[in-house]
Amino acid sequence: MVEITVFGSGDSRGHEGCNCGCGHAHSMREAAEVLKKALLEKFGDQVSFRYVDVFSEDIMDFPDVMKVMNQYRLPLTVLNGEPRFHGGLSFDKISAAVAELLGVV
Predict the structure, then answer these.
(1) 34: closest CA among 84, 79, 75, 82?
(2) How buried is 53 (Cβ within 10 angstroms: 0-12 exposed, 13-18 middle, 19+ buried)?
(3) DSSP letters along 13-64, please?
(4) Does the global pTM surpass 0.70?
(5) Running DSSP on this structure, what letter comes out for residue 80?
(6) pLDDT above 50: residue 84
(7) Lowest CB count within 10 Å: 6, 9, 13, 98, which one?
(8) Which residues neighbour 14 within 8 Å (Cβ) at sequence distance 6 or greater?
């Protein structure tokens, strides 16, 4: 199982590098939902997905991410607790990394 956590700002609409099909007009939360749907369709129960708004209380559940968040641009994608991608949501890149972690490359 690969745990995917996307950290973003629910109100931000100016994210860059998004290739998740959201058309750049949606918030990070909405783009993450599109990504979640695509990843669940591809990997099913081999992945878990969570979106965390960095301005919500939920961020307190991730002290390790809080320590390094200023080093990354939102949205920040964390796979199995390790920051992997930032500044955009690319289905192709995230999907390839998940497949590698699952050993299905």
Answers:
(1) 75
(2) buried
(3) ----S--SSSTT-S-HHHHHHHHHHHHHHHHGGGEEEEEEETTSGGGGG-HH
(4) yes
(5) T
(6) yes
(7) 13
(8) none
